[in-house]
Design brief:
- The structure is a homodimer of 312-residue chains.
- With 312 residues, chain A is α/β, with parallel strands linked by helices.
- The first copy, chain A, has 2 domains: 172 residues, NAD(P)-binding Rossmann-like Domain (Rossmann fold); 89 residues, 6-phosphogluconate dehydrogenase C-terminal like domain (6-phosphogluconate dehydrogenase C-terminal fold, Orthogonal Bundle), CATH 1.10.3660.
- In chain A, 48% of the residues lie in helices and 12% in strands.
- Chain A has a 6-stranded parallel β-sheet with strand order 3-2-1-4-5-6, sandwiched between helices.
- Chain A is elongated and about 65 Å long.
- At the A-B interface, α7, α8, α9, α10 and α11 of A face α7, α8, α9, α10 and α11 of B.
Chain lengths: 312, 312
């Protein structure tokens, strides 16, 4: 895209799933690093990465990948961050920048920071992008285009390191924002973590309903349920770790959710139509805000493929 | 589309919102009725219908629209069905077919049947199609293309009338299924009514969160929350009526939902990662079923417009 020189000499990606492989493709697209090396626990994933061609080299250990790199990106599930940081820590160059892509930030900072050598800068990041697929074959260069990436730099992080991580993500197509880790974890609990748990729950309930065959649930899923299933198809390991490491904020939002749900259930049971109507009118406004902010399309079915899409 | 002769001489649409206006457009597209007349409570809606051209005539009362029609389609919110049926009942021709488009079926059958003259056939129907928009300007002929329409004919309905309503929907682009009203109301409670209430609740909670500004919720909505807001932007009157008239099935599903949600919350609180992982793995399978059944696309962001959509 740009003709700018590389930002980094040697970028090391630890973890080569959807995000790691997409980041490699996006960095290659824009020439962000002179060399991209990577590590994944499974030999099959490393072989796939080399076959697909998004890495210049695949290393046998995380420590080997990180050694000599001026950029290290941790792309493993949040629950694996501490172990990976402990493994690579001793070999990380003092001038290196270490960053991550985890969906939870306060926990990751606490897990990673103690293992890094003095002089290495940790700049946590969270790209808000994903698909329902996982693994090294699911990555693509455009995943981050137009998406947000939130940085949560600790006070100790040198400004120059923060700006280089910002430039990394901008050159990979993202828009970059900064906030504190605590605020990130609360905002994401509302916009992502609680909605995911709720979607997982609803899909589990539907699957459990022996009185309704799953073929009926699938056949008529376009009536609303379908949109929950996409969310509930996300990577189980990643999401287990998100809930366990952003426990307090997630439980707080879920507590409020349950309160509201009970109030609405009570309105249904007692036939309080006014309460329901008022509530449903209020929620329309937030939708309009999302459309105005360009964060979604108002086309029917999200603009999904439709048998006759010529109109309107 | 087809060159088949009209199925009906005079079709009367009572209610001219998203579904009523879309049905008019779809019937016109295929020449399903020789004449399409309609009624809406508001004079503005009637004027809009004539201006847009999806009606041959707009009537001043529902009774006048239904008089002399061989097909009457009730396209009003479920809670208004009884009053409309009482109004048109005396004027409905003995040989006429009356149908509806309500999202709840047992209640509508109980509300409408007593008001119809002997010899008129009531064949309840529910097209599973919609957008987040409402009103006469939001309709379009393709809304039902490739979507399901469920018929729930009472035993008393003559087979010939059922087949004509089936042909009506097939010529409007839908696939038609039949089941009992009770089964319909349970299946839809799982696939549509409970998911809608849950989405409304989550959007209400987000809107309420004083610690998170609504601009943040909107800005980062693509992380999961966005998909809830589309569902929660649906017509408040329609949905109020759905919950009040499919109370038992909806409350049953919500009860099971709450049970499961509490179990997952407890797993988060106690750090039971195995429970979470197992649950999230199970829900992936139902998603695969939906993709295999052609009921959704696996493209990132539901195939939404994306800054660089050339690939993959």
């Amino acid at each position: 895209m740009t003709d700018e020189p590389p930002l980094f000499e040697r970028a090391a990606l630890i973890g080569l799933g959807l995000i790691g492989s997409s980041l490699a493709w996006a960095m290659k697209r824009d020439g962000v690093a002179r060399e991209i090396v990577g590590y994944a626990r499974s030999p099959e994933t490393r072989a796939t990465a080399l076959r697909l061609g998004f890495l210049d080299a695949a290393c046998e250990t995380a420590a080997e990948a990180a050694r000599g790199a001026d950029l290290v990106v941790l792309c493993v599930p949040v629950g694996a961050m501490a172990a990976v940081a402990a493994e690579i820590g001793p070999g990380v160059s003092p001038g290196a920048i270490v960053t991550d892509v985890g969906s939870v930030k306060a926990h990751v900072i606490a897990a990673v920071t103690p293992h890094l050598p003095e002089g290495a800068a940790f700049v946590p990041a969270h790209p808000l992008a994903g698909t329902e697929h996982s693994g090294p074959e699911s990555g693509f260069a455009e995943l981050f285009d137009g998406r947000w990436c939130i940085l949560t730099p600790p006070h100790a992080a040198p400004r120059r390191a923060v700006e280089r991580v910002r430039a990394l993500w901008e050159r990979c197509g993202a828009q970059v924002d900064e906030m504190t880790p605590e605020r990130h974890d609360l905002v994401l609990a509302v916009t992502s973590h609680a909605p995911h748990l709720i979607a997982y729950t609803m899909v589990g309930v539907a699957d459990d309903m022996r009185r309704v065959t799953s073929s009926e649930v699938i056949k008529y899923s376009a009536a609303g349920f379908r949109d929950f299933t996409r969310i509930a198809a996300s990577d189980p390991t990643m999401w287990r770790d998100v809930f366990l490491t952003n426990k307090d904020a997630t439980l707080e939002i879920l507590g409020r959710f349950t309160e509201e749900l009970f109030a609405l259930q009570r309105a249904i049971r007692t036939g309080d139509g006014q309460h329901l109507h008022d509530y449903f009118t209020r929620t329309r406004a937030i939708r309009r805000g999302i459309l105005q902010a360009g964060q979604d399309t108002a086309a029917p079915d999200f603009g999904r493929p439709h048998p006759s899409a010529e109109k309107p």
